[in-house]
Design a protein that fits this description.
Blueprint: H1 2-8, E1 14-15, E2 20-22, E3 29-31, E4 34-35, H2 42-59, H3 63-78, H4 87-100, H5 111-123, H6 127-137, H7 153-170, H8 174-192, E5 218-222, E6 225-231, E7 237-245, H9 251-254, H10 257-265, E8 268-269, H11 274-284, E9 288-296, E10 303-314, H12 318-330, E11 332-333, H13 336-352, H14 354-368, H15 372-381, H16 383-393, H17 401-414, E12 420-426, H18 431-443, E13 465-468, E14 474-481, H19 490-512, E15 517-523, E16 528-536, H20 540-555, H21 560-574, H22 580-593, H23 597-608, H24 612-623, E17 629-634, H25 636-645, E18 652-655
Helix pairs in contact: 2-6, 3-11, 11-12, 12-18, 13-16, 14-15, 15-16, 19-20, 19-21, 19-23, 19-24, 21-23
């Protein structure tokens, strides 16, 4: 209710960062607010928050909404997933706040007892209403924070820093200057020194298993749709993906696909508005998402275009879970006012996240200059997507009418029984229930003939490019076209990426250059190799480092221990820790794209036998021929300084 009141107020376009409960401090903090407001409306936002809390404290909190939140917490505790990072680390992080502040670190794992106590207190009276009153409304430790952008902030900070350094320099004696020079030399010596890796625990190549776990689906058609069941121990959770081929969409609808993914799960359906649908999703699922995915084929320069609806639910909620998916796929209702809110929220989120998205935008733009696959990915997730969202944000509700018609056309094109592949990961006891519910879902879909595929977009012109963004740092990417997964050189390229990152780029870009990160990445599926820097204060120096990285591999000795560490790191890339939910989905994609069990085991065998000569050979063949393209996303001052130093560094300079 608080979120709805804030969004419906039209005072801003998205929830402010920090909204919600921050409970990993010694004293928890609750916040609520909006982004993209007028400065003079800050007080109005505060009144919306307080008025909503007063209404909840007086009239009561809807018990169904409370049940939905409790269900979400229960789901989070029940799910044993390694998605994101290993489940054991998730458990550890949940214990750390209490441990750090002298509490009981095991308390966070005692969910059942806490839930029972909460249910008892709920039954005794107005527990939530009292908490709202005592902890929020009557809490005098409250502040109104208004964060206002200052276009002169960065220049002012830089000026103050120069003034401070000038004052320090004016007071330096000759011994002080000598000591600074000596300290700088000692730092450089420490950075250049070889580290003794033998003091660290390590695996040996013989410890790496050569085989992958075979995983075969139980395939069955249901109402014309292809359904694959992966029966695995999921701790009472069912995972379901609906995959549809979006290559059949006409070109004019491709730019709307990212918006469709957001509108799909944030709109109304089957006579219910978006709030009611959101309440159903919260009450019966662990979340429902939708997005376009572009996946590389293993052996040929081609790719699969899939729009994927994914969700998960406790086994006891499979029926209402699939009913929600059925309503969304067959009876989606997109309201113009709600769509305008979705667009505004998305555009605001993108604009306010440019400092975090700069690296992604640079990578995607560089890839778009080399392959058709890269061009499509950039269109769906990169700067072109940002530009599309900006244009949509200019439309009023009446002008959104044709956009809604296009979104509904996308839905009816994608969700046809014959065009869908459904992937289910669940336990044996749930298969029959899921099958029954899927039959109802498929039956509700329209029957349409096979669609003609649209032509794939061409790669963009491979010229060096800079994009100006409101950030004080740079994201520098150089990308090379290489070979696909089944090529014998692909494993060596993967090892080369790990070797360069750990032994050269980290030291040169982060330790010496001041960047937050220096990376090398081999996309063996897409046949691309990337050198990149993240939040980097340099541009020309970084591209010089990329040049030196190539000659360093070719001319410097490659030590056996460093090569072994690079191979071990690569093994982690190709055989990561997976929980059952990931295993089913990954196997389905592997079968779709040609990453068969045999090809993966052949790749691993080649990987474990990569030599120093292999690294030099692939470096010479793919990186030393000058065929790479480079893209920088950075602040205007950094780009201007780089162009003064190297006028031909970029052929194109445009704003993000």
């Amino acid at each position: 209710p608080l979120r709805k009141a804030l969004i419906d107020s039209k005072l801003g376009t998205a929830m402010a960062d920090g909204t919600g409960l921050q409970d990993d401090y010694k004293e928890s903090v609750f916040g609520a607010g909006l982004k993209d407001i007028r400065t003079e409306d800050a007080g109005k936002v505060q009144e919306v928050v307080l008025d909503t809390l007063r209404k909840l404290a007086k009239d009561g909190v809807d018990s169904d909404q409370v049940d939905a939140v409790i269900h979400r917490l229960e789901f989070e505790k029940r799910e044993r997933s390694n998605a994101g990072f290993p489940y054991a680390l998730k458990v550890m992080f949940s214990c750390l706040p209490a441990y750090n502040y002298g509490g009981d670190p095991y308390a966070s794992m005692n969910f059942d007892a806490d839930l029972a106590r909460l249910q008892q207190e709920r039954s005794d009276g107005r527990w939530f209403e009292n908490v709202i009153r005592t902890e929020l409304l009557d809490n005098s430790h409250r502040a109104l924070l208004t964060i206002v952008p200052d276009p002169d902030l960065e220049d002012g900070k830089h000026k103050k820093e120069l003034e401070r350094l000038a004052l320090i320099e004016a007071t330096l004696s000759e011994p002080d200057r000598n000591k600074i020079a000596e300290d700088a030399l000692r730092l450089k010596a420490a950075q250049d020194a070889r580290q003794d890796l033998s003091v660290l625990p390590t695996l040996e190549l013989t410890d790496i298993p050569m085989k992958f776990e075979p995983l075969a689906p139980r395939s069955t058609p249901i109402g014309g749709a292809a359904v694959d069941f992966y029966v695995l121990p999921t701790n009472g959770v069912t995972y379901l993906d609906i995959r549809s081929d979006f290559s059949v969409l006409p070109q004019e609808q491709l730019d709307l696909l990212p918006l469709f993914g957001r509108a799909f799960t944030q709109s109304g359906a089957a006579g219910q508005d978006y709030v009611q649908i959101a309440q159903r999703i919260a009450a019966y699922t662990g979340g429902v998402g939708a997005a376009a995915q572009v996946q590389s084929l293993a052996a040929v320069e081609d790719f699969v275009q899939s729009f994927v609806v994914s969700g998960r639910a406790l086994d006891r909620n499979v029926k209402p879970f699939v009913e929600i998916l059925a309503d969304l796929t067959s009876r989606l209702e997109i309201d113009p006012a709600r769509l305008k809110e979705i667009i505004a929220e998305t555009a605001t989120r993108l604009e306010s996240s440019l400092a975090n998205l700069g690296f992604q935008f640079a990578i995607l733009l560089a890839q778009s200059k080399l392959t058709s696959e890269g061009a499509l990915n950039e269109r769906l997730q990169g700067i072109r997507m940002l530009h599309s969202m900006r244009e949509l944000a200019k439309l009023d509700e009446q002008q959104l009418g044709p956009i809604i018609d296009q979104l509904q056309a996308i839905r009816t094109t994608l969700f046809r029984a014959e065009a869908m592949q459904v992937v289910v990961t669940c336990e044996e006891s749930t298969v029959a229930t899921v099958s029954e519910q899927l039959a109802s879902l498929v039956k509700a879909l329209p029957a349409q003939k096979e669609k003609t595929r649209s032509p794939k977009p061409p790669a963009q012109h491979p010229v060096p490019e800079a994009r100006i963004a409101p950030v004080p740092v740079a994201f520098n990417v150089r990308t090379f076209k290489t070979v696909r997964y089944t090529n014998a050189d692909a494993p060596a390229l993967l090892v080369l990426a790990n070797y360069l990152r750990d032994t050269f780029l980290h030291k040169e870009l982060r330790e010496k250059g001041g960047a937050y990160g220096g990376y090398a990445q081999a996309s063996t599926g897409a046949g691309l190799f990337m050198l990149g820097s993240y939040r980097d204060p340099n541009i020309t120096r970084t591209y010089d480092v990329y040049d030196r990285a190539v000659t360093w591999v070719l001319d410097s000795p490659i030590e056996a221990e460093q090569l072994k560490e690079a191979i071990l790191g690569s093994c982690g890339d190709v055989d990561p820790l997976e929980s059952p939910d990931i295993k089913g989905r990954r196997e389905a994609v592997n079968r779709l794209t040609g990453f068969t069990l045999q090809e993966r085991e052949k790749f691993k065998h080649r990987l474990l036998n990569v030599t120093a000569d292999d690294l030099r050979r692939v470096t010479s063949r793919y990186l030393a021929n000058g065929s790479g393209v480079q893209v920088t996303v950075a602040g205007a001052d950094l780009i201007e300084a780089a162009r003064k130093e190297h006028p031909d560094l970029f052929a194109v300079v445009e704003p993000v």
